[in-house]
Write a structure and sequence with these properties.
The complex is a heterodimer of chains A (253) and B (310). By secondary structure, chain A is of the alpha/beta class. Chain A folds into two domains: 163 residues, P-loop containing nucleotide triphosphate hydrolases (Rossmann fold, 3-Layer(aba) Sandwich), CATH 3.40.50.300; 82 residues, no CATH class. Chain A is 38% helix and 23% strand. In chain A, helix 7 links the parallel strand 7 and strand 8. Chain A starts with a strand and ends with a helix. The mean pLDDT of chain A is 93. Chain B is mainly α and 310 residues long. Helices cover 76% and strands 3% of the residues of chain B. In chain B, the strands form two sheets. A two-stranded antiparallel sheet of chain B has the order 1-4. A two-stranded antiparallel ribbon of chain B has the order 2-3. Chain B starts with 6 loop residues before the first helix and ends with a helix. The chains are: A alpha/beta (253), B mainly alpha (310). Chains A and B meet through helix 2, helix 3, helix 4 and helix 6 of A and helix 7, helix 8, helix 9 and helix 10 of B.
Chain lengths: 253, 310
């Protein structure tokens, strides 16, 4: 059975139909890319699936269970993680604390025990700090383990988002333009990182404009245009589809 | 390796231990007690404002609930003062919990207005229900007694407040460096990111609002007992603003900033009394200068200067 199944998904903002009747399925263990011109509805689609927006119509099934309209924390509980196109890093915290927040649901969040410095809780927190440092090494941020988030460069923050998402120990991770704003060298590094994430057994859904990266990484690609599904298939199929070429180059098919 | 965050606490405890032996007279003891009381309230408020990033302009209202519970329940119903204190704290916590859900759907200016309104309503109730509260004139407060031992006078209250302050600083430091505290700071840093990692944002905002309200209510009760008299001024808008100012001047999201802000702003009006009539103007000018030159508050600005100078 597919890990994620989206059927006839739509969302309207007033008169704007940002996503219209989009359907697709994602099998566990693959890298699935969503591409399309600016404004095609890619990020909106992510926001729908990760609970930030509630669909106007349509269903989203995760492992057969309907998750459409569920809150983001309910989705987090089901193992769905994501990163953001426009960085959503907590600049008021240390880099490593941003990663530790990712493990929120795996921890004892009791207020009273926290205030009383409960030994079990404190020990678990120390272990978590070690785990978080390990994750930062995994994404290549070993130099920033003791840094405040607000003194890190942009490229490092993009990776920090990935580390935070991984701290959730997700089954499914949505990466919203992980290479946006990065230089070619950094892009190649992120490319390798996404590969590493996928190889660790997490199903990856990727929105990305860097076509080389998309073609290199993706098992399947969904093409959106004006909120609609244009086509879906392997890299080769998508690349040779005349509708896709038209959408990107603006020609009339 | 990072320095222990508890060094400041040890300094505070040492100062609290030495202070009664070096203060020249009861005027200064009284000042020290009021500083410590304010510091505890501001610690709770800073968790809400500085760490969680949620404003409350009505916090003196919760102070008033505690103070008037302590004043009215023993006089009208013969309740034990300790029970009255707990009832006040429970009432403040309950009220905070009830109003928090709708209030925390609001953000920024709207949240400020809603909490402002809440504080004003509490103040009006206290002013108008004269049969229970003494109205604008206020009412006397019976003495607190524990296990047959009556607590009265500067000496007793000094040590009680000193212990409460030390425990509050310790608990606040523990709280911010815990899963709960990280979630609070995260929802301040990025609400959407904290939602996506599973933080139930509204629940955390409500929890910290309730906690800070309970802090304020308990300290309202302590103030009432210590002063021996309550008036509606304790619960008015200006007091709410004063508390927020202490948070901001001391330093948002700084535990020690809360203490420093409370100490300075409690002492400043006393220090300025020699300016006769101009003290409010000078007070205002000092606050403005602080905001211009130390926008992050005293403790965070100085801490940053100190660590970059090393």
């Amino acid at each position: 059975m597919a890990l994620l199944e989206v059927k006839d998904l739509s969302i309207h903002f007033g008169g704007v139909k940002a996503v219209q009747n989009v359907s697709f399925t994602i099998d566990a263990g693959i890298v699935y890319a969503v591409i399309g011109p600016n404004g095609a509805g890619k990020t909106t689609l992510f926001n729908l699936i990760t609970g930030v927006y509630t669909p106007t119509t349509g269903t989203i099934l995760l492992d057969g269970e309907s998750i459409g309209g569920k809150s983001p924390d309910a989705l987090a509980r089901r193992g769905v993680a994501r990163t953001f196109q426009n960085l959503q890093i907590c600049m008021n915290m240390d880099a490593i604390e941003n990663v530790m927040v990712g493990a929120h649901l795996r921890l004892d969040r009791n207020l009273l025990k926290a205030a009383l410095r409960w030994p079990v809780l404190k020990r678990r927190d120390r272990e978590l700090r070690g785990e978080a440092a390990e994750l930062m090494r995994f994404v290549g941020l070993q130099d920033y383990i003791n840094t405040r988030a607000d003194s890190m460069p942009y490229g490092a923050l993009k990776r920090l988002e990935i580390a935070r998402a991984l701290a959730m120990k997700p089954r499914l991770i949505f990466l919203d333009e992980p290479a946006a704003g990065l230089n070619p060298k950094e892009t190649i590094e992120v490319d390798a990182l996404v590969r590493k994430v996928a190889d660790s057994g997490v199903t990856v859904v990727l929105v990305e404009h860097d076509m080389k990266m998309v073609m290199n990484l993706s098992d399947r690609i969904l093409v959106l245009d004006y909120g609609r599904k244009l086509t879906e298939g392997t890299g080769l199929e998508v690349r040779s589809n005349p509708d896709v070429i038209a959408a990107y180059l603006g020609a009339h098919a | 390796m990072k320095k222990s965050p508890f060094i400041g606490l040890y300094i505070i405890m040492a100062v609290l231990l030495v202070l009664p032996f070096v203060l020249p007279n009861s005027f200064y003891v009284d000042l020290a007690i009021r500083m410590a009381i304010n510091a505890i309230i501001v610690l709770g408020l800073n968790l809400l404002i500085g760490f969680a990033g949620q404003i409350s302009l009505g916090h003196a209202g919760f102070l008033g609930i505690g103070a008037y519970a302590t004043a009215a329940l023993p006089s009208h119903f013969g309740w034990h003062p300790m029970l009255a204190l707990l009832a006040g704290a429970a009432a403040a916590g309950l009220l905070a919990a009830i109003v928090a859900r709708p209030i925390f759907k609001l953000k920024g200016h709207y949240l400020a207005m809603a909490t402002l309104g809440l504080g004003i309503i509490i103040n009006i109730v206290v002013r108008n229900e004269a049969a229970w509260t003494g109205g604008p004139d206020g009412m006397p407060v019976p003495a607190m007694s524990l296990a047959g031992f009556e607590i009265s006078g500067d000496k007793h209250w000094y040590w009680i407040v000193a212990v409460l302050l030390s425990v509050s600083v310790w608990a606040s430091l523990n709280l911010i460096d815990s899963p709960f505290g990280r979630a609070l700071r995260a929802l301040h840093g990025s609400e959407v990111a904290s939602k996506v990692v599973g933080v139930d944002v509204v629940r955390y905002k409500v929890a910290i609002f309730v906690l800070s309200a309970v802090f304020a209510s308990i300290m309202g009760s302590v103030t009432a007992h210590y002063v021996g008299f309550v008036t509606p001024n304790l619960a008015d808008f200006f007091h709410s603003i004063e508390l927020v100012t202490m948070v901001v001047i001391g330093g948002m999201a700084s535990v020690y900033g809360s203490v420093v802000g409370a100490v300075l702003l409690t002492a400043l009006p006393q220090a300025l009394t020699s300016f006769e009539g101009w003290e409010t103007v000078i007070f205002g000018a000092i606050l403005m200068l602080c905001m211009i030159f130390l926008p992050k508050g005293l403790v965070p600005t100085l801490a940053a200067k100190f660590s970059s100078g090393e």
